[in-house]
Amino acid sequence: MSWSEYFEKIKNRPVRKLLLNALREVSEDMPKTAIELGSGPGIDTLHLLNEGWSVTAVEKESQGIQMLKAQLSPEQNSKLDIVESEFENLINLPKASLVYSALSLPFCKADAFPQFWKVIDSSFGEKCVFATNFFGPEDDWVKNGMCTGHTKEQIREMLKSFPTIKFAEDKEMGKTATGPDKFWHVYHVIAIR
Ligand SMILES: C[S@@+](CC[C@H](N)C(=O)[O-])C[C@H]1O[C@@H](n2cnc3c(N)ncnc32)[C@H](O)[C@@H]1O
Questions:
Q1: Confidence band, pLDDT 50/70/90 cuts, at residue 25
Q2: Is 104 in the pocket of ligand 1 (CB under 6 A)?
Q3: Which of 28, 53, 97, 141 could hold 48 in an S-S bridge, CB 3.0 to 4.6 Å?
Q4: Best substitution site from 37, 100, 107 to test ligand 1's pocket, by max atoms within 8 Å of Cβ?
């Protein structure tokens, strides 16, 4: 699978429920500053911009970045900072009230994940909503070494500065956007502080 194929397949998908659910947890006194990690073709970043957020979007694929840029009004453009980088090479991030990443963190290489996590952790604002997916150890792409997995206990440890953590877990055979079916073990996590 190439990311280009993936972007073409999903470019008209609706805004992800994970993001809509995360936005319900944001309180009025939080600055509207968001980060999206692995923004792909930018559907969810665009939604945040439409909702009045300033967004830092991190993505390694220039095609995804171009697809996002092509949809921006000048005003949206002025509220967006695009960081073209691999997670493995990211040195810092700004502070944000909303840190969001759908189906992307598991693609950071396992040996680079602890340093990447330090960078993510440093971006959490004092009041913050963090919404993301992790893959669990039973996921086919974790088992074959393509992705980095985490157990629920590891996730809880990483998120110990968040008093509230909402977890949902999928474990099922299911479709991929561009290849054969696989076993998905996915955590949907929304952490709030
Ligand atoms: C499964 S896609 C999800 C895209 C988007 N978040 C969505 O929900 O449609 C994973 C995204 O992470 C990006 N990605 C994969 N590995 C990456 C890495 N090592 N560093 C930065 N981005 C990466 C891909 O280019 C892709 O945009």
A1: very high
A2: yes
A3: 53
A4: 107
